[in-house]
Amino acid sequence: MSVSDEFDDWAARGKDRGMEDRHWHTAKHVLARMPVEAGDTVLDLGSGSGYAGRALKETADAGRAYGIDASPAMAANARSYTDDGDVGFLVGDFEHLPFETDTVDHCFSMEAFYYASDPHAVLDEVARVLRPGGTFHCAVNYYEENVHSHAWDELVEVPMTRWSGPEYREAFREAGLAVAVQDNVPDREIEIPPASEFPTEDWETREAMVERYREFGTLVTVGVAP
Ligand SMILES: C[S@@+](CC[C@H](N)C(=O)[O-])C[C@H]1O[C@@H](n2cnc3c(N)ncnc32)[C@H](O)[C@@H]1O
């Protein structure tokens, strides 16, 4: 199944808002770290419901916030959640960004990068469109060290790339992005039941759930354009 077919189906079933609710726990911390200044142009790769663009416009006074998503239904839903004319949603593949070279101040992506058929091409594109000193805050929950994520590729019919932290850093550098920082943002909001309630439908042990959310959380790699 293509990425757009898979996520059109998710959007039609309202799962875009469900993802927003779950991802917001850690995404909001990543968004708050972005050095966005008033008037900046920001771009969200794989924007889903579009919460990142809305948040950067509202909280950091971004001048223009764009989201790009392969799924027309996701982009349509995202458009319906805002009436801000400076927040726009494009349909397209983030391996081919429809922006001129050196025109974007900061890029963000949450739980989308690893769906790229060629992740290196995405990084090349990000490095091309970013202005000097611009950043790419790339956040993923599906990554090698997070052993609890390894079976997720069985849940979707789209190929996924599972890199480790060092592989992210190496790929960023290969694309010409300096790695400013890489760390894990824990999800402190998801409710973890008491030990007596395990196993649950999703978790064998409480320890495993604690490790997944409170320790591994979201892997964030921040690249800076030279
Ligand atoms: C798991 S959702 C995450 C959405 C949102 N970032 C969030 O945090 O809730 C992944 C999104 O990335 C989009 N996507 C995946 N591969 C893509 C690609 N190559 N180009 C553009 N969008 C893509 C999907 O259509 C989907 O909306």
UniProtKB/TrEMBL annotation:
Name the UniProt record assigns to this protein: Methyltransferase domain-containing protein
Protein's UniProt keywords contain Methyltransferase: yes
Gene3D superfamilies named among the record's database cross-references: Vaccinia Virus protein VP39
Biological process per Gene Ontology, one example term: methylation
Xref: InterPro entries: Methyltransf_11, SAM-dependent_MTases_sf
MF terms in GO: S-adenosylmethionine-dependent methyltransferase activity
Organism of origin: Haloarcula salinisoli
Domain (Methyltransferase type): residue spans on this chain: 43-137
One of the Pfam families matching this protein, by short name: Methyltransf_11
UniProt key word Methyltransferase: yes
Keyword vocabulary terms for this entry: Methyltransferase, Transferase
